[in-house]
Amino acid sequence: MTNSYQGFLWMYHTWKQIEQLDPDKTIFVIPTGAIEQHGPHLPVDTDIFNANKIAEFVGKKDDVKNVIVMPPIWWGTSPHHKGYPGTLSLRLETFYYLLKDLIESVKIHGFYRFLIINGHGGNAGILTAATSQINYDLGLSIPSFSYWQSIQKVLVAIGESPIGGMGHACEMETSLALFLRPELVNKKEIKADLPEPGIAWSCIDFRASGFLGIPLDFKRDSKEGVMGDPTFATAEKGKIIFDAACEAASVVITDLAKLKREKFATDRF
Fold first, then answer.
1. 10-263: CATH number
2. Mean pLDDT for the chain?
3. For labelling, which of 68, 135, 159, 176 has a CA lying 20 to 30 Å from the CA of 240?
């Protein structure tokens, strides 16, 4: 069950309502993603839409308490997609300072519980570095995760494409789009593109990525911005993926709520 009142959204509060929130209970969820090309069949806001949708769904669940969903950080680090129109990419330092400034704006009023839910693969390593630096600069430990990391077993179970089929604008992301907003999927343009990884250790797949990172250039490394096989995508799979991601995020938030202040805040700051 969910609440219809959207009191979990930061943007709908007055400053007095935010001031009255309990800093020892309230957790601020920050969706991060990207505005970047997703092949010829998916909209450019795919990554941030998915992360924000998961955050909002969890925020309005009756059994998840004291959640405030922050306005999403729409843009991410997407230099590997800039070869295609539609991509809006931030520099690494811009992304860091944007995230730090937003968190600091909340911290100065006594709040210290945050969670970042990420929807863009290109942000994952950046978030590890950024949250580590924020811990040093602001004295706050900020948990973060990319939603697909929490549901790998589900992706393995329902995936029908070969390894490499869940990379970008792929079986997973297209399934989510077919479930969440099918009217925005250009079905006539759905086609597979499984580029050779070069060597086996560098395969890109949400289920089992290779351990060797080789920077991508999607204009160079793909035909039309796709890495994977979206022809296997279905709305039914999208529902399974979305439900599993929302459940995982709910469990994470519930578990984080059990931790005391000293696990997040460093008193010397």
1. 3.40.50.10310
2. 94
3. 68
